[in-house]
Amino acid sequence: MRSFAFRRLYSAQAGLGLITSSPLVRQPRFSALASPCSFAVPGAHKGRHSYRPLIFDLRRAIGTFSTSSAPSTDPTVTACDKKTKKNKNRLQPAATKMTTTATTLKGQPLDKQVLDSMLRRRLFYTPSFEIYGGVSGLYDYGPPGCALQANIVDLWRKHFILEEDMLEVDCTVLTPHEVLKTSGHVDKFADWMCKDSKSGEIFRADHFVEEILEQRLNGNKEARGHKVDEAAKDDPKKKKKKLKGKGQEAVLLEDAVVQEYEETLAQIDNYNGEQLGELIKKFDLRNPATGIQPEPPVAFNLMFGTQIGPSGGLQGYMRPETAQGQFLNFSKLLEFNMQSMPFASASIGKSYRNEISPRAGLLRVREFLLAEIEHFVDPEGGKKHHRFHEVENIELVLLDRDTQLSGKTTPRTLTIGAAVRDRVVDNETLGYFLARIHLFLEKIGVDQTKIRFRQHMANEMAHYATDCWDAELFTSAGWVECVGCADRSAYDLTVHAKKTGAPLIVRQRLETPKVIEEWTVDIDKKKFGPRFKKDAKVVETALLALSQDKLEALSKDLKANGTVTLDVAGVADGKAEVSSDLVAIEFTKRTENVREFTPNVIEPSFGIGRILYSLLEHNYWSRGADGGDEARGVISFVPAVAPTKVLIVPISSKDEFKPIVRGLSQKLRALGVASRVDDSTASIGKRYSRNDELGTPFGVTIDFQTVSDGSVTLRERDSTVQVRASEDKILEAIQALTKGTKTWKDIQAELPVFESQETEIPVR
Q: What is the pTM for the complete model shown?
């Protein structure tokens, strides 16, 4: 999300707000920043979850707006604009419908309010500081949430760090001002906000415009007798998110006004601060609580500032991404890796973003966990990957740039080998990591029908990036960017080396010495400095930056005339006269035994919080939804990520059961299997049911037969089928199931099915 924090930022030029929102997105990136010229305006990294997923996709294909709102001259952008106008009215209704098709694992309509209530009740997460009123954008994970996150991270570490021999680092959260100034975060990591001068209330400017226009459009629907989504209106959580004050009124709008509002909403992520201010004035948008039009939008830097040390002389920030620490330690990591290339570093840690108005639950927070990889590769040789053949036949769902340019949102399925061969994906290393990302998401249980890889548009790309893809997961909030994977060239290493003078480069001994013939500049520093005084450095830099053709021409002029005139920005008249006694320009020949280069970076960046929440939605379903009046929630985690693997259920609290329960629990711990004993007085069915809500895949029942012959039953969560066998065989089955070496179908074939008395809660 490179940095989930940042890829958003650096990948959006001219203020184009990209994709989904989040804690990564945008948290999101989150990644290192681009040079200042690649960031257009504050908010470039900040997208939102769209309530119109197709419109949301279309936004990305819309060309960047200039400050003057003049049409773009970029043919790519122009093509997008034309397609946008043609398809806008057709796409909006479809997009609205799409948001209502979020489904459970079993295809049932997803009731997000019911799911969120269950997650809080079971303490997957809870608002931080809730008894003090809470703070928006801050959440605490409870025991199951912590275990789920730890299991996801553990699998991530095994899947990437161990499998790929990556070098893991854990860098400090506190980051000095100069580091983030050089990377571009200090100047450009910002959103647009506006303030109500009467109440002092702060709004994120794009959210302010969007919410009021949506209210007006809903009022127009009511005035025309059309039905407005009552569920959304009555949802107290959604009411909280809306602007305070008078609700929507049933006011009839002219068709032209409706079209203008809809076009504005479709492009809301594309506007810069000045344009948002113009929209507020043009549409006379006012704070419903006060009737006051807010002040013009101003940039708000999203980093949390702090003072390092007691003197207050060293300014710092809470890092917005983990990547900068990896870049700054590059030379040490290269040495640790015995100067061998390519190699990758990785880091898992908290990052921070001072969101203006975080409002998407776990999808947009102020403190979030990132897992980021920086794969350093030689830019020569086509960025091949020695393990690409292992993944080349894996099929991915790709929404490529050409498809988006056509105004469509229908992805295509290609093997990653074909995608690289056809240049849909730029190179093997990038393609390799896209496939590995897909395999990881599949391994942890992401619904494969709700994942796609979307390629950034040309006008989204930073000038140094050659290709960039986002792994997006479909949720009740639309398509959410959860992983970003970018070919970032050598930007970060270059800017930090230039600032500090540290040689962040690779030196490789050449097997065959290389003869270099070139024009070189020899400066007599003793005369050059006194001659140009304060301009000496500027003139020297301009001279050394000349091309070989220019140096050859100047050499001839210098020999013929004794002086040459250079164009040098920053000196008087923009000209500098250089004489032959100060400079010699000669054609030289030298032999190189060592090659020096700055490596390029392929960067996968994972927003763990976004992945975690998407996983919860993808694996949730309701057992009673198809029949009775009592729906019971189930979360069908794969065993590898389930917070608790086994529930131990004694059927009685008699003393003879206690040593059996204790012994079984100890054996499971010895096997490294997380288990939990539920010896409450509730019925077995209710005990199973509440652990189904926790996602526990297996349950062991200890009954009176266990006391007599030592056998126990093993229940599988999704089917509720039970098998019975000796304790040792059940333990072997559990170990195989949790390691993934056997499936439940295998266990059913090996062990006899147990037909028990009714223990499940009946569905009436």
A: 0.77
